[in-house]
């Protein structure tokens, strides 16, 4: 919350003018992910100004104005806030009010006088949510605190330990661990008197909410506020929790965005909490889940440029587990992984060009969102469903001309195949903050050489690949969960001599993590799409089925069902070479 | 009342509809009632609280009968008869209003005032009455339904000021994005446009990659030129209509305008706003005239609208653009200033209801005497004339319905801290003497609503009488099923 004042801006290169990204978060888990994402950004802002911080942060080639906006309050105080619209259910803001400020205490609410009514007043007051130790520490901070990890005096580090512990024990809302100051226009709570958000678990449950005209209008207005002030918007990054009713809200929101900002690319991340993958109780449940997934894919993909499904049914059991100790039951944990991956994907959107005159490469491979979309979905097949793979931490380079370990990339996208060999695949790889032997930061050219050699060494090379490299690793802010295995070092290096079986490490022990993330359009994602396409055909379109009834309850007529089904079939067909597959031969 | 949400957010409301939407209702019966009540608000604009009260009272009256052994079926039959009779009575009871080219402004004001006073203290309500009536009359076009979306309701937070005013024209919540553009201009042509004035790479070269820097430069230049040409067309039109006069030119664009385009426009003396909201495109044309253009090709003077005054108002980082003194406004803006969000929200709710009450009156061509007068009279009619026409136990249903109507005057009395029994007795006496009276909530005395100018909407009343018994009947019959099931279960 210390980032109220705009940091000094680095002079912009003549060639690359800043192009803004506006972020939208819709739904419970999306906001959990967003909360971590913005904590990373806030940490970067703090570290850039901190003389004690790692040089990789002080001279980070990241233009934060891409994600942040400068403004001022009614009192004339200047502010620097995320360009963000966050949509959640009523009550999901915890102890934060929708204006972005801590909510009023009961005492303060008592003093609020009604100036428009002179008659009787009844007051019904619900007990506000308390602020946890961590949130209290934010408001108590001295005016110019250091954001770097590892306090100087012992007393402070004891306090920090308490804060980390309190978050490990008890996080109920995404606001419980956010350290970011949000703009008053950013946070939107949907009211819904009879929408029971506990049962808000499928596409159909949001029907009434979506049909509420004023609600969509208010969401549109919030977004317009941030887009209007952009001189050169490069795109909208949109994170949706598509496990339930928010999928439908996002679909309507995306449709409005496509109407209002026609040529603006939208990069959509569909994120899911592992706990939503629970087993079905009965056949109706199973069909409902399958139809929800199919309808979500069809609707959401219709109004975005690139769609990235994220959300393994289990992270604790995943291939990330050798390095990370994640508790699937804690959204505070699982959302941190998605957030780290999304952070890495956004790095190329804000890399500053060093310009041709500079002889030491500061960074490499900046592309804007439009170019990324173009690379991924226009170069190979006309496929816009993209897998996201991540190396967390990214392995260090060894000395000599070695190949960067591509196998270190582990996918976060569910239901895809392990198929690596696809001559039509298209990839965009981001590698940032990678170390070399001895713990030094690897240079841009070293990373490039190593990655290029690795690509050369692959049996089947992708049709097209793009590489972005930055020296700046992922900073680990204090409110990051303690999920690192004990053999992860202070800078995310993998320690060879470590004590086995100790407690997972957190932000007090690990300062930063080298990262790699890859967006990949390949036939590996085909099973994901195919499965949804088949469920819609099997359960939905077949006449008289239980699924047809469910879809009707959700408000879809036959024609719309068939359109959705055809849309999914078309997505599947993009993977089959022309004329290679004939389903109907008559 | 005040209402604090889960987050400790405060919501002040005098509006039943707001209250219901904000509450997390768990009870299925309550959810059913709430749905009906909110649907009522959506169709006729008010009456949420009355609907809830009426359904509640119908259930209370029914419960008494059921406890004494009456089967719910009889009550439901009685409700049906009573509802039909009450609706017929409403037809004879209503006061017709002649709406023509020159509607009776006084009666519209009375209806608006009655509605506003249920939400705001009298002084404030009376101040808003004229605004609300004038706004509806401003957007009203003969032979067309009234579209209240053409009244924009805007708000500004202001430290001290509580003030609401009607702007015959438009207020936009954004300003120009160039430091050299005028902040105030008179005699303005208005160009309402939906044309991209920003450089977008995708326009020409989707699916194409530059092979070298020089090629890239060329493409960029070519694309930039296209955008510049569009801007140039606008400048040409400006020069054609403004040259040698003191007239000004304002572009309000739904799409984006990038800094180079803003530069060109500013240099030509044009004021330009970007990313106007879609609905304002329609409003602008209705307010200023001209037409909204989707392309700069073939643009003529006829496309342009007109405003006598355009100026910008800045509050912190918030900017507002006022487009005023328009010729023949069919769209207008109600601007609410208030010291905090709560005050603003309260006034907004009331203004919305006020607008709808005026619209309803114009469309109903009728009003109904308020202050509980209708309910008193309808009850008397049901008891005196209808009940005896019904055979058997359904009479109980008619009686329950009639008594439930009294919840309206009772609540008025209660809200004023009066004794409800006394009030009902004194009102009944007057009605028995053939006087149609309601309740003066200040004195507790009977009052002639016609003399006081207290009128309610006909369509709102109609909806309450209509939907209340439907829901109550559903609830009673659901209950019946449950009871039946319980009785059938025999001890083994």
From TrEMBL, chain A:
User: What Pfam families does this protein's entry cite?
Assistant: Misat_Tub_SegII (PF10644), Tubulin_3 (PF14881)
Where it mainly occurs, coarsely classed, is mitochondrion
Q: By its UniProt entry, which InterPro entries does this protein fall under?
A: DML1/Misato, DML1/Misato_tubulin, Misato_II_tubulin-like, Tubulin/FtsZ_GTPase_sf
Region annotation Disordered: where it falls in the sequence = 138-159
Q: Which residues form the Misato Segment II tubulin-like domain?
A: 19-139
Q: Does the keyword Cell wall biogenesis/degradation apply?
A: no
Gene Ontology BP terms: mitochondrion organization
Gene Ontology CC, one term: mitochondrion
The listed locations are:
Mitochondrion
Q: Where is the DML1/Misato tubulin domain?
A: 169-351
Query: Which portions of the chain have biased composition (kind: Low complexity)?
Result: 143-154
Tell me which UniProt keywords the record has, alphabetically. Answer: Mitochondrion
Belongs to which family? Belongs to the misato family.
For this entry, the protein name equals DML1/Misato tubulin domain-containing protein
Q: Which organism is it from?
A: Aegilops tauschii subsp. strangulata (Goatgrass)
Q: What is the lineage of its organism?
A: Eukaryota, Viridiplantae, Streptophyta, Embryophyta, Tracheophyta
TrEMBL record, chain B:
Q: Which CDD domains match?
A: TCP1_zeta
Q: Which UniProt keywords apply?
A: ATP-binding, Chaperone, Cytoplasm, Nucleotide-binding
| Cellular component terms (Gene Ontology) | cytoplasm
For this protein, the record's PROSITE patterns field holds: TCP1_2
- Mainly resides where? cytoplasm
Subcellular locations according to the entry: Cytoplasm
Q: What's an example of a GO molecular-function annotation for this chain?
A: ATP binding
Spell out the family assignment given in the record's similarity comment: Belongs to the TCP-1 chaperonin family.
Record protein name field? T-complex protein 1 subunit zeta
Q: Give the source lineage, highest ranks first.
A: Eukaryota, Viridiplantae, Streptophyta, Embryophyta, Tracheophyta
């Amino acid at each position: 919350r210390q980032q109220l004042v705009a940091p000094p801006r680095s002079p912009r290169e003549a060639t690359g003018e800043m192009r803004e990204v506006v972020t939208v978060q819709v739904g419970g888990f999306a906001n959990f992910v967003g909360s971590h994402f913005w904590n990373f950004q806030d940490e970067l802002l703090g570290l850039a100004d901190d003389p004690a911080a790692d040089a990789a942060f002080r001279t980070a080639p990241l233009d934060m104005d891409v994600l942040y906006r400068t403004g001022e309050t009614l009192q004339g105080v200047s502010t620097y806030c995320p360009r963000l619209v966050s949509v959640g259910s009523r009550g999901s803001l915890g102890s934060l009010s929708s204006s972005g400020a801590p909510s009023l205490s009961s005492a303060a609410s008592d003093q609020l006088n009604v100036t428009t009514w002179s008659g009787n007043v009844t007051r019904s007051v619900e007990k506000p949510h308390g602020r946890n130790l961590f949130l209290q520490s934010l408001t108590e901070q001295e005016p110019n605190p250091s954001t770097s990890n590892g306090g100087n005096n012992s007393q402070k580090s004891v306090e920090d330990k308490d804060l980390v512990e309190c978050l490990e024990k008890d996080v109920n809302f995404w606001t419980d661990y956010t350290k970011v100051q949000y703009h008053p226009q950013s946070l939107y709570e949907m009211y819904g008197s009879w929408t029971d958000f506990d049962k808000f678990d499928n596409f159909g449950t949001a029907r009434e909410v979506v049909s509420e005209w004023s609600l969509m209008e208010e969401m549109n207005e919030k977004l317009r506020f941030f887009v209007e002030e952009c001189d050169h918007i490069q795109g909208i990054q949109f994170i949706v929790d598509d496990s339930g009713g928010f999928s439908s809200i996002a679909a309507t929101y995306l449709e409005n965005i496509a109407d209002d900002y026609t040529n603006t690319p939208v990069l959509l991340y569909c994120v899911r909490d592992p706990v939503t993958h629970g087993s079905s109780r009965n056949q109706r449940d199973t069909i409902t889940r399958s139809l929800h997934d199919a309808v979500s894919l069809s609707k959401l993909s219709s109004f975005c440029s690139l769609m990235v499904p994220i959300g393994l049914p289990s992270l604790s059991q995943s291939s990330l587990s050798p390095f990370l100790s994640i508790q699937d039951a804690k959204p505070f944990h699982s959302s941190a992984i998605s957030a780290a991956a999304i952070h890495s994907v956004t790095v190329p959107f804000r890399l500053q060009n060093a310009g041709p005159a500079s002889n030491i490469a500061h960074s490499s491979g900046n592309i804007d969102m439009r170019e990324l979309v173009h690379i991924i979905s226009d170069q190979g097949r006309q496929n816009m469903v993209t897998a996201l793979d991540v190396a967390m931490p990214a392995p260090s380079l060894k000395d000599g001309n070695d190949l960067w370990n591509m196998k270190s990339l582990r996918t976060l996208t569910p239901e895809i195949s392990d198929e690596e060999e696809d001559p039509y695949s298209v990839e965009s790889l981001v590698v940032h903050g990678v170390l070399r032997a001895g713990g030094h930061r690897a240079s841009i050219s070293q990373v490039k050489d190593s990655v290029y050699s690795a690509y050369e060494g692959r049996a089947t090379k992708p049709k097209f690949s793009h590489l972005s490299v930055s020296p700046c690793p992922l900073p680990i802010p204090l409110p990051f969960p303690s999920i690192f295995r004990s053999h992860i070092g202070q800078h995310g290096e993998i320690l060879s001599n470590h004590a086995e079986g100790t407690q997972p490490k957190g932000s007090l022990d690990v300062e930063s993590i080298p990262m790699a993330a890859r967006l990949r359009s390949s036939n590996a994602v085909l099973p994901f799409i195919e499965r949804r396409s088949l469920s819609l055909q099997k359960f939905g379109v077949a006449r008289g089925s239980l699924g047809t009834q469910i879809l009707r309850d959700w408000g879809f007529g036959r024609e719309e069902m068939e359109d959705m089904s055809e849309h999914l079939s078309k997505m599947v067909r993009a993977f089959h070479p022309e004329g290679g597959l004939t389903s109907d031969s008559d | 009342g005040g209402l604090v949400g889960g987050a400790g957010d405060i919501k002040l409301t005098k509006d039943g509809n707001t209250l219901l939407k904000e509450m997390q209702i768990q009870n299925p019966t309550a959810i059913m009632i709430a749905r009906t009540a909110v649907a009522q608000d959506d169709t006729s604009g008010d009456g949420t609280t009355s609907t809830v009260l009426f359904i509640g009272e119908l259930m209370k009256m029914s419960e008494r009968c059921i406890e004494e052994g009456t089967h719910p079926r009889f009550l439901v039959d009685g409700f049906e008869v009573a509802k039909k009779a009450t609706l017929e009575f409403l037809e004879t009871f209503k006061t017709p209003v002649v709406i023509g080219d020159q509607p009776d402004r006084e009666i519209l004001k009375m209806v608006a005032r009655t509605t506003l006073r249920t939400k705001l203290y009298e002084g404030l309500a009376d101040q808003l009455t004229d605004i609300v009536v004038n706004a509806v009359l401003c957007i009203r076009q003969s032979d067309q339904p009234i579209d209240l979306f053409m009244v924009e309701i805007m708000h500004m937070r202001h430290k001290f000021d509580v003030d609401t005013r009607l702007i015959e024209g438009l207020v936009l919540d954004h300003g120009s994005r160039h430091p050299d553009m005028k902040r105030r201009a008179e005699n303005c042509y208005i160009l309402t446009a939906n044309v991209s004035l920003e450089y977008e790479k995708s326009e020409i070269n989707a699916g194409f990659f530059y092979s070298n820097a020089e090629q890239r430069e060329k493409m960029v230049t070519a694309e930039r030129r296209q955008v510049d040409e569009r801007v140039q067309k606008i400048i040409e039109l400006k020069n054609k209509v403004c040259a040698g006069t003191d007239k000004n030119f304002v572009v309000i664009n739904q799409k984006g305008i990038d800094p180079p385009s803003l530069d060109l426009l500013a240099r030509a003396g044009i004021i330009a706003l970007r990313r106007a909201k879609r609905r304002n495109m329609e409003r602008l044309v209705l307010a200023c005239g001209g037409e909204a253009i989707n392309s700069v090709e073939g643009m003529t003077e006829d496309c342009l609208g007109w405003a006598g005054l355009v100026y910008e108002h800045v509050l912190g980082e918030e900017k507002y653009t006022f487009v005023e003194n328009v010729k023949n406004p069919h769209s207008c803006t109600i601007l609410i200033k208030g010291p905090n969000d709560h005050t603003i929200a309260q006034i907004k709710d009331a203004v919305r209801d006020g607008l709808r009450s005026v619209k309803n009156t114009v469309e109903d061509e009728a009003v109904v005497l308020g202050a509980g007068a209708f309910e008193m009279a309808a009850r008397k009619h049901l008891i005196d004339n209808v009940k005896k026409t019904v055979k058997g136990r359904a009479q109980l249903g008619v009686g329950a319905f009639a008594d439930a109507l009294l919840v309206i005057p009772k609540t008025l009395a209660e809200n004023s801290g009066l004794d409800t029994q006394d009030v009902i007795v004194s009102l009944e006496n007057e009605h028995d003497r053939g006087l149609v009276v309601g309740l003066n909530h200040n004195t507790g005395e009977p009052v002639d609503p016609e003399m006081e100018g207290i009128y309610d909407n006909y369509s709102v009343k109609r909806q309450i009488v209509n939907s209340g018994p439907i829901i109550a009947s559903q609830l009673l019959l659901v209950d019946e099923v449950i009871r039946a099931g319980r009785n059938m279960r025999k001890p083994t």
